[in-house]
Amino acid sequence: MADIANNISSTIGKRIHAERLMRDWSLAELAQRSEVSKAMLSTIERGKTSPTAALLVRIAAAFGMTLSALIARAELQGGGLLREGDQPIWRDPATGYVRRHLSPVSDMPLELIKVQLPAGARVSFPAASYAFIRQQVWLISGRLEFIEGDTVHTLEVGDCLALGAPSDCTFHALEPGAEYLVALVRG
Prior knowledge:
Layout: H1 2-22, H2 27-34, H3 38-45, H4 53-62, H5 67-75, E1 89-91, E2 98-101, E3 110-117, E4 122-125, E5 133-148, E6 151-155, E7 160-162, E8 169-186
Antiparallel strand pairs: 1-2, 2-3, 3-8, 4-8, 5-6, 5-7, 5-8
């Protein structure tokens, strides 16, 4: 598992480096835009650390893309079919959040993401990470508390929540944990 995590960290780091170079940004400029230190960005770009979801969201937002798009660009090749065994899986080392990218690379504005969040774990994203997307969350199993700005939603199995205007959000898995599908629409 460590080799897989190191390979994914390296692939994500290379993608961040490529995105930065395509924009002709220095490390300092990306640091300023993402509010992630130059030292951390350098470590991520070299694949020497497995970045958290919170860091990746800030970096992706600086590029004007979603976390899903950043990871998809790092992991996926084109094609209309993405077999289960080829779907990229990423684990947040800080929370145990496991994210599986279900959608094949395409020019469609829709992305499907399956997430597993251990009981008690919380993953927070700033409003800026929702600036370019609309999303719905469908709870497959477990229980999930979703905090959207000042509003708290408690989701039970089968519940589907359409997110409102961009605001700071937190996914919090209640006992026994949560597995959910996120449908993202860009644009």
